Amino acid sequence: MSSKGLISVIVTAYNRKQYLPHALRSLEAQTLPRDRFEVIVVKNFEDPVSDSIIRRNGWKEVYSDEQYQGRFLLAGLEEAKGDIITFLDDDDMYREDRLEKVYTTFKSVTDVVYFYNSQKPIDEQGNILYTQLKSSATERLYLVKSRALLKVNQRLGLCLFEEPSLIRVIGLHDFNSSSMAIGKAVLEDYKENLRSLKLALDFFIGSVARNSEGLLAIYMGQLTYYRLHQKNTSSFSNAWKERSKRLEALYREALYQIFYINGNQLIGNLYPKSCRCNRYRLFAVGSKLHLYAIPLKELRYVYNEFPTSLKELYGYLRCAIKLKQLHDENKARAAMSSIILTFGSLLLWIGGYMPITPLRRSLYDLAGGVTRKIYYAI
Predict the structure, then answer these.
(1) What is residue 62's three-state secondary structure?
(2) From the CB of residue 66, how many other CB atoms can be counted at a distance below 10 Å?
(3) Could you tell me the CATH number of the domain that includes residue 212?
(4) pLDDT digit string, tens, across residues 171-215
């Protein structure tokens, strides 16, 4: 049973001990009164420093060795008593007033179901790297009705759930789960979907919010410190590490493309089949194209599990080009990007049927590098 007006902070830590104490101390420094939020730490290890912080604050601790991001989160969700759920990755931190801003927004604005704030990137030592926003854009709050977005997307023939002018102002608001908060009732409707989610948790939460009936609150203030470091990605086994850097990079690339194919297909299935352009299905096809061209003999059997027909390829290009035109006000640049994306995607698709040769390696480097820049800019 949820407690009205209580925020449940779910902290997740998997195999990383060194940054967790910093994340927990950022919760200790919050200006929101302690009786208005609870902390649930889900982790798969013991650590004297972190455990001491958890105990002295009376916070909950949950052990889980689940490797699926969705199931790892569920372990904390099942312990949560608050009607507002927010998240904190072990390597990120909150600004001292983040929870207060989340609490105030949910309490003062009727029908808010989702909150998202901007991030301030930091390095491994916690030093600020750069500022993403112009000073004129900071501390603004945008309120968007999810159903209004649906109508806009129906008019455009898309399934984006992001209004183009809003995208140009704030960018896509489904990145970094440490910057998100969502109503517990909304998230609980998707428990079974969470059990199947291996990766892309932030995409999933944002997608769930846009499928709801309420308001989306997009706050421009940089309330989250997002840490950039070499271990932002999952570590490889010793067997992978013994390979050359080139092979290790290719294996890592393949692993992530497979994860994102599964994750984006799962999220894409949440949207109506009538959507002609589903951004998450689009991402899934894009990931398959990159997977095809990775020059590894061991992946040959994987290609058959993720087929892409010419019809799917055509749909991918049609939607990707349409999205690029919406996002880029420079029509000439958008047209050139569309041509490059089409050419590169065709090369990637063909590359999946080529033998592992130096030519295919060159093809992967050329087509993959160029199309990836455009693909991730969509």
Answers:
(1) strand
(2) 15
(3) 3.90.550.10
(4) 444 568 899 999 999 988 888 888 877 777 777 787 788 777 788
- Centre a 10 Å sphere on the Cβ of residue 35 and count the other Cβ atoms it contains: 8
Helix (H, G, I), strand (E, B) or coil at 114: strand
With contact defined as beta carbons under 8 Å apart, do 81 and 2 qualify? yes
Dihedral of CA atoms 246, 248, 253, 255 in degrees, nearest 10, equals 160
Residue 272's domain comprises 238-375
* Per-residue model confidence (pLDDT) at position 327: 60
C-alpha distances (whole Å) from 80 to each of 9, 41, 66, 176 are: 8, 11, 18, 21
pTM of the model: 0.64
Domain total of the chain: 2
CB 87 within 8 A of CB 42: no
Tell me whether residue 175 is in a domain: yes
What DSSP element (H or E) covers 215? strand 215-227
Last residue of a domain, one of 194, 227, 260: 227
Pair 207, 269: CB distance under 8 Å:
no
> What residue has token string 């309490």?
107
Q: Is residue 232 part of a domain?
A: no
Strand bridging mode 141-145 / 215-227? antiparallel
Asked if 243 contacts 160 with a C-beta cutoff of 8 angstroms, the reply is no
The model's pLDDT over 251-304, given as tens digits with 9 standing for 90+, comes to 666 666 766 676 677 667 766 666 667 777 777 887 777 777 676 655 655 556
200, 227, 254 - which closes a domain: 227
* Amino acid letter, 90: D
Residue 293 sits in the same domain as residue 213: no
pLDDT in tens, 22-81: 999 999 999 999 999 999 999 988 899 999 999 999 999 999 888 788 888 898 999 999
User: Which of 45, 73, 22 shows the shortest CA–CA distance to 180?
Assistant: 73
Element spanning 314, H or E: helix 310-327
Residue 69 near residue 77, CB atoms below 8 Å = no
245-268 and 279-292 helices cross at what angle (nearest 10)? Answer: 150
| Residue 137 pLDDT greater than 80, yes or no | no
Per-residue confidence (pLDDT) for residue 319, from 0 to 100 = 76
- Backbone torsion region of residue 171, taken as left when φ is above 0, otherwise alpha when ψ lies between -120 and 50, otherwise beta: left
338 is written with which tokens? 């569309």
